[in-house]
Each structure stands twice: as C-alpha cells, then as structure tokens.
Design goal:
The complex is a heterodimer.
Chain A lengths: L15 H7 L5 H22 L1 E3 L6 E3 L2 H6 L2 H35 L2 H14 L5 H11 L4 H5 L12 H26 L2 H9 L4 H30 L2 H7 L6 H10 L7 H33 L1
Helix pairs in contact in A: 2-13, 4-8, 4-10, 5-8, 6-11, 8-10, 10-13, 12-13
Chain B lengths: L5 H24 L9 H4 L9 H11 L1 E5 L8 H12 L2 E5 L5 H9 L10 E4 L1 H9 L26 E13 L22 E3 L7 H13 L8 H12 L10 H6 L4 E5 H13 L4 E4 L7 E8 L6 H11 L2 H9 L3 E2 L2 H7 L4 H5 L13 H19 L1
Parallel strand pairs in B: 1-2, 5-6
Antiparallel strand pairs in B: 3-8, 4-6, 4-7, 4-8, 4-9
Helix pairs in contact in B: 3-11, 7-8, 8-15
The chains are: A mainly alpha, B alpha+beta.
C-alpha cells in the first residue's frame, strides 16, 4: 500500500488512448444519461428563459425580457443576497469544519472518530423546514435559549441574515467535516516526521506543507458548501420568509405560489442565473481539484 | 467483434442528442391536445346529459376523480372529499395536497390528453383567468347556478366562486393581555414580536390579502396598496412584525401569538390549538375588511369529465355548501340557502360577524397590486 504511486498519471507507455478509442461505446449509456437527465432539463430551462407566451393566444416568441427582469430590482437583490449568504456560510463552515475534522484526526481515538463521522452524516442532512422550526423553537423571540440567556436584550434576532447563517452552519459544518476528513487522512504522518527531523516546527509544517497540500481540497469543500447554501430554500422560506431576499425563495414564489400568475419563464430565467453562478464557481474548482489529486491520489 | 466503427456510431449519438434537444424544445411550445369528445365532456349542465341521474351514472362508471392541491385541513376539504367518495363510490385522487394554485394550474395545463390530468380546479381568481386564457376551462352551469350572485360567477359558466372568507386576526389570549380587534391596534407596543402572516405576500394569497386589508384600513384603496406596505413597514420598525410563516405549530410554540390569516383557517385551527392549551380568538378587523373567494372550474381536458361535473354539482349542493359552512368558510350559495332554509343555521351562526357587503378588486387592480406588493414588500420588511 505504501509504495503506490502518488501521481495520477499511470506508468509511461501504457496505451490508454488507443484502447480507449476501441471501447468508447461503453460510455454511451453515460452520455445518454447525461443528455436525458441534465441536457434535457437544461435545454428546457434555457428555452423557457428566453421565451414569452401570450396568455390570451398561447403563442410563444423569443424574448430577452425574462432575463432582463431577473437581473434588476428585487430579483437582483435576491441574487446578491443569496451569493452573499452563501459566501459567508461557506467560509465559516470551511473554517470550523476543518478545525473539527483535524481535531478528530489528531485525537487518534477510533471511538471519537466514529461518533463524529456518524453524527456529522446525520446532521449534514438535517435541513429544510424541520431545521427552521427547531431554530425558531430554540432561538426565536420566545425560544428556549433566547429566554434562558436573555438574548433579546443583546439585540439578537434569528430572523436576519445572521440568524440564517447560524441555521445554515448547523448542517454545513458537519457536511464539511465529512468532506474534509479523507483529505486530512491523506496528510501522511511520514511528511510530518520528515519535516520534524529536518527541524521544522509545527507551525512551519502547517504553513509550508499542510495547508498548501490541503488548500485545493479545502477550496473544493468550500465550493460544495457554497453550492449547498446557494441552493437551500425551505429553511429560509419558513424561518425568515422574504425579509431576507434570496433567489431560491423568489424562484419558488414565481413557480409555485398562490399569488403570482404566469411567471414560470421568469423563474426559469432566475434559475439560469443560478446555473451561471454555479458554473463560474465550478470553473474555479476544477483546476484546483486537479492539483489536489496530484498529492492525495 | 472489435471492428472499430466510430463514424456511424458517433453520428448515431449526435442524432440521438439532437432528437432529445428537439424533444425538449417541442415540449415547451406545442401540445398534442387529445380530442375531447363524448357526451359528458361537452355537457354544459346536468340537463345536457339527461338530468342528475344520468350524470351520476356516467360519473360512477368513470369511478375516479383527479383533483390537485386540496389540503384536507383547508376549509374542511377533508370532509368534503370523504363525503363525496362515500356518497357516489367514486375514488378521489387528491394529488399533492400541500400544493399551490400555480402547481395545480400547471398540472392541468401540461398534462393535456393524459389520464392523470386534473379533472376539476380550485383556484384563486387570477389563476382561473389564466386558465381561461389558456382555453383550459369547460363551461358548466351547476344546478344551483341561479342562486349565485351575479358578481361571483362568469356569465358563460367557465368558473365561479365557491367558498371564501375574510382576513382575520387570530390571537392567543393567554400570550396577549388584550386581543386586538382592529389592524390599527397591531401597532401598539404591547404587541412587540407578536404579529405574523401565513407566509409572504409574494407566495401566500392570505398574506397578500392581509396587505390589501391593511391598505384599506389605512386610507388606501384597491387602486393604491402602498398604505398597506407602509403599515407593515411601521409594524416592522416598531418590532411587532415576526417574519416567520405562521402555522398551528408556531402558534403553539408562542412564536406567532397573533396571526393574520383567512378567518376559516384561523377558526379551523382553533380545535387543534384548544387541545394544546391555546385560547385562540378570531376577529375580523372592523377597519380593514377584505374578503376573497376561491373558484371552481372544470378542466376541458378532464380524463373523467362526468366525475368532474358531478364533483361541481356536489360542491354546490346544499350538502356540499354546508360542509364549507361547517369549515367556517362562506359558501357562494349562503344567501340563497338562508332564504330556502337549507343552510346549517348553527354553523352559519358561528361565522365571525362582518358588516357591509364584500367588494372585490377588478383583475386589473389585483394585477397592479401584485406588482406593487412584490416590488415593495422586501423594502418594507427587509
């Protein structure tokens, strides 16, 4: 196990490309799946975002109106609010998640590790309306903790961006713990020993070896967290309604509300904006992931 | 076996993808409406089919009714569906009971020609208008048609008011010393961190209507809902507004001790809340009376056209209308039934008292209000 190659590239001269060409039909099911489950909805999304339907005649025509409308006024505020909230949550969750994971890895107690991993796996999936209600009951204006600690006198309110960050961190920190644990395991003890035998201090090890090697995975994790926070909807909808503007809540209002009529295509345009932002974020992540694989493969 | 044949295979893949993309595009713009024929599908009244007996027989033969987004705890819908099923032996398939008007409309629109299309629709007026624009509605006049006030039905019978209610103030008398009786009182300092809506006005019709009521209470009109936004801005500034979506659960927890909502929902929660020790009082505010009715319509592409028509007949029969009444909502035939003596007097007496006749905004006024509220709400309470 210890002598496995640390680089992703195989031994030189392996005829990977030639045999690959011969067997490429094997990936047809994959591409079919991709086309059906990603291409089709994405196509419908783009088509709808650039289409307007006349409610009286049912005729459709191409238009930029939906996209234009989705980028101004309250919808621009919502997009900005979502990006801001996701950035804050991703940063904080990455920081705390990594610290917790490192504490677990460093403790070398299998029982603690099992407990943390199991708890994280459960908590990472605790979101949505139940989470919102749990927070309302605990930290709302009449919440148990609020009364116990007289939080309202400090000016704390759950129904603000700060409250929402708190609620999101509840499931995002465990998610980061689960995500970053394998990467921390990948930091070989031998590296630390080697650094120590060369006279490096603990701080120097982390500054020159640990963090640089981990950085790609940390950023990868941060991207995942950004995406999670960016796409979250139910928690915010139940907890803060529309007093914190978020694009997902606005999409849901336009798509499945009881008030706004015929806004489906505007919702698709807003979704398109989300897709663009997700793609931008992923464009940053892919080269980093490649770097990470070189060290931790 | 290993013969490499990349070119044709690649072409096949490309064609496959092209077909998928084309299918996506086609799905968006063109429908393949099934030919809706048959006696029941075109009947505009029970008489067209040869009377109620023939309608019942045809509906029983279909044996099934598809409806969408009818929450059992909403205006007594649970009892309505159960009674209908028992009376006619028709299975009611109620899809997505927690869904919204927009989803129900979508389920009717996008499933034309399918067996699982929605047979009958229960929608707010704006959504019904949209459905009418999409030619989704089959006009039908129920037996009780003449008793429904002219302002509450479309002349051609494409859709008509069914049940409705007023925006009301629900209040936990244990958590609040004195329950507010007007919207203006909600601004008092004693209601700090207490006042909530059932959702937000861009999504929930009750919250949207609460804004209308607040506008009317503060010198606004159907043409000018800004005073309503101003009112909630003030409520937020004074710390009285709680942005949590109120529900029996948040009320029980004490987080939303005052909730503006339809009177039939607030009153409907009372039984459940009383059991949990909440003294839930419901008042229709005297300064901002705003009422709204939900409508019934039949899908022109209904897979069970006779069952859909029988469902409407049942909803507008004295039996069905009294089920609404027992669920604290005001059925469209209430006045007529009170004259005929067919109304459940005990249930009618339990409705909160209101004075004057309800007025409704025109479609244009409602649309303008939606734009103003959608744009202004975030700024008011953000």
């Amino acid at each position: 196990m210890s002598d496995r190659p640390t680089t992703a590239a195989g031994p030189p001269g392996r005829p990977t490309r030639r045999t690959g060409r011969l067997h490429w039909p094997a990936v047809v099911p994959f591409f079919a799946f991709l086309a059906l489950c990603f291409g089709l909805p994405a196509g419908a999304l783009v088509y709808g975002a650039f289409t307007a339907t006349d409610p009286a005649t049912g005729d459709s025509h191409a238009t930029l109106d939906n996209v234009r409308q989705s980028l101004k006024g309250i919808y621009a505020t919502g997009l900005g609010g979502s990006v801001q909230l996701s950035l804050i949550c991703a940063l904080l969750a990455t920081l705390f998640g990594t610290l917790i994971a490192q504490a677990v890895v460093g403790s070398r107690r299998p029982a603690l590790r099992r407990a943390v991993v199991a708890a994280s796996g459960v908590l990472a999936n605790f979101s949505g309306a139940p989470l919102a209600f749990a927070f309302v009951a605990t930290l709302g204006t009449t919440g148990t903790l609020t009364r116990l600690l007289s939080l309202d006198r400090t000016g704390f309110s759950l129904y603000t961006t700060a409250g929402l960050v708190l609620a999101y961190l509840y499931f995002m920190i465990p998610l980061m713990v689960v995500t970053v644990l394998p990467a921390l395991d990948g930091l070989r003890t031998q590296w630390r020993e080697a650094a120590a035998s060369c006279g490096a201090t603990r701080g120097q090890f982390w500054r020159h070896i640990g963090i640089p090697v981990l950085l790609p995975s940390l950023l990868g994790g941060a991207v995942l967290l950004f995406g999670t926070a960016f796409a979250s909807h139910a928690t915010a909808a139940v907890m803060v309604g529309s007093s914190v503007p978020l694009i997902t809540v606005q999409i849901s209002n336009a798509l499945a509300g009881n008030v706004l009529v015929g806004q489906e295509n505007l919702a698709l345009a807003m979704s398109l904006n989300m897709v663009v932002i997700a793609l931008l974020v992923m464009a940053v992540q892919i080269p980093l992931q490649r770097r990470s694989a070189r060290w931790l493969g | 076996m290993k013969r490499p044949r990349p070119a044709p295979a690649r072409r096949a893949l490309a064609v496959g993808i092209a077909v998928l993309v084309a299918a996506t595009a086609a799905g968006g713009c063109g429908y393949a409406p099934a030919a809706v024929t048959g006696k029941a599908a075109t009947a505009r009244s029970a008489a067209d089919l040869g009377g109620m007996g023939a309608l019942v027989k045809a509906a029983k033969k279909e044996g099934r009714l598809n409806v969408y987004a009818l929450a059992p705890d909403w205006a007594n819908y649970g009892e309505m569906i159960k009674t209908f099923e028992r009376k006619y032996g028709i299975e009611v398939n109620n899809e997505n009971p927690g869904g919204s008007s927009q989803l129900a409309l979508g389920a009717a629109d996008k499933r034309r020609g399918q067996d699982r299309a929605v047979d009958a629709l229960d929608l707010g007026t704006a959504f019904m208008r949209n459905a009418q624009g999409k030619r989704l509605l089959a006009p039908y006049k129920v037996t009780g048609w003449p008793g429904i006030p002219r302002a509450q039905k479309q002349a051609d019978g494409s859709y008509l008011n069914n049940y409705g209610g007023y925006i009301s103030i629900g209040c936990d008398a244990h958590a609040v010393k004195k329950c507010p009786r007007t919207l203006a009182e909600l601004l008092r300092p004693e209601y700090r961190n207490k006042v909530a809506l059932n959702g937000n006005p861009a999504e929930s019709s009750s919250a949207f209507s609460a804004l209308f009521a607040a506008a009317l209470a503060n010198g606004g009109s159907f043409d000018d809902v800004r005073p309503g936004l101003e009112f909630f801005k003030k409520l937020k500034q004074r710390g009285n507004f709680v942005p949590v979506e109120s529900s029996p659960a948040t009320i029980r927890k004490g987080e939303t001790p005052i909730s503006l909502d339809w009177d039939y929902l607030n009153l409907g929660y009372r039984k459940e809340l009383t059991a949990k020790g909440v003294d839930w009082k419901v008042t229709v505010p005297s300064d901002g009376q705003y009422s709204q009715y939900y409508n019934q319509g039949i899908n022109a592409y209904a897979p069970h056209p006779a069952a859909a028509r029988l469902w409407l007949e049942f909803l507008y029969s004295p039996q069905g209308q009294n089920i609404w009444l027992r669920g604290y909502s005001r059925p469209a035939l209430l006045d007529r039934m009170e004259k005929d003596g067919t109304a459940d007097k005990k249930a009618a007496a339990r409705l909160p008292e209101v004075h004057g006749t309800p007025r409704f905004p025109t479609p244009e006024q409602e649309d303008a209000a939606k734009v103003a509220i959608n744009e202004g709400w975030g700024k008011a309470v953000g």
